[in-house]
Design goal:
alpha/beta, binds phosphoric acid mono(formamide)ester, Rossmann fold, 4-stranded parallel beta sheet, globular, 300 residues, binds norvaline, 5-stranded parallel beta sheet
């Protein structure tokens, strides 16, 4: 049966670590000029109904480096944006392509696409989750710290797609997860249900959440599709920022991570961002390597 990557809730610990190991290997090979054309002659379709820099470029480049190619399908320039249902798009694209990556709003749309497609479907971000990003994040932390088990991952900000995926991915990988978010911006209930009885704490105070953290993470206060709420969110998230006071609570050698794009002066100060730019851009690079691992394991 074909396999998809729709959300981290669907993966077990072993599958996560297998991807991390393959990501490390492909990164090593790429950096050392060792060709790995595992997907020669294969084509990935990339459906985007939201903007992207990293996801688009890393998937497209990744396919090229694996010996295949990728086709960019924006919602506006395809029939997707004119309402062709995912059930039909899935069955049509399955007759041309070897895999589909989709970035969109509703998780439901991705699940339906996968149900009707006979080829692997990869979630490149929905309102519910961002699995590829969090696999890259885990890869980055493991690369720097050597392990994930027992480390404390702190996330400060909106209980959004990033928070949802960090909770699931962090806990499945053996980390402790601590979230600081405003009361009305909690992570998704499905994620909270999954985390019941596991090492997750959710607090209001960012400094409390950052205590003893090995990695401190944040994301924008207003995600794609929430542009209308921006002013209200600016008020509601005041104080939910990674700054030097928050970092003073974390471990001395704590990493700072951000999925990007970042808004300096909002969810993170410019000085903390720049002090940890090496971590943050390594994290962005690792999108390429981990997604190649995902594509090889699903599409080879
Ligand atoms: N982090 C991330 O997914 O970036 P893009 O929106 O640029 O793809
Ligand atoms: N929460 C952000 C993540 C961007 C990578 C968004 O959905 O816009």
């Amino acid at each position: 049966m074909k396999k998809d990557l729709l959300k981290l809730l669907d993966l077990d610990r072993k599958e996560i670590y297998d991807l991390l190991r393959l990501g490390d290997q492909l990164k090593y090979e790429q950096h050392n000029g060792i060709k790995h054309h595992h997907l020669e002659g294969k084509t990935l379709g990339m459906i985007f109904t939201k903007s992207s820099t990293r996801t688009r470029v890393s998937f497209e480049t990744g396919m090229y480096q694996l010996g295949g190619m990728a086709i960019f399908l924006s919602a506006t320039a395809s029939q997707v944006g004119r309402g062709e249902p995912p059930e039909d798009t899935a069955r049509v694209l399955s007759r041309y392509l070897d895999g589909i990556m989709i970035r969109t709003f509703e998780q439901e749309e991705v699940e339906t696409l996968a149900k009707y497609a006979s080829i692997p479907v990869i979630n490149g971000l929905t309102d519910f989750c961002h699995p590829c990003q969090v696999l890259a994040d885990l890869m980055t932390i493991r690369e720097s710290k050597g392990v994930l088990d027992g480390l404390k991952l702190c996330y400060i900000g909106d209980g959004n797609n990033m928070a949802n995926s960090l909770i699931v991915g962090g806990l499945k990988a053996g980390m402790k997860v601590s979230i600081a978010c405003p009361e009305n911006y909690m992570p998704d209930q499905r994620v909270l249900d999954f985390a019941k009885g596991m090492d997750l704490e959710i607090v209001r105070d960012p400094r409390e959440a950052a205590k003893g953290a090995d990695a401190v993470y944040t994301d924008v206060w207003a995600s794609m599709g929430q542009e209308d709420e921006k002013l209200q969110r600016m008020k509601d998230f005041e104080g939910y920022q990674i700054n030097s006071a928050v970092m003073a609570e974390a471990n001395k050698d704590a990493m700072v991570l951000h999925c990007l794009p970042a808004h300096r002066g909002e969810e993170i100060t410019a000085d903390v961002f720049e002090a940890h730019a090496d971590d943050i851009f390594e994290e962005a690079e690792n999108r390429l390597h981990i997604q190649k691992a995902i594509m090889v394991s699903l599409m080879k």
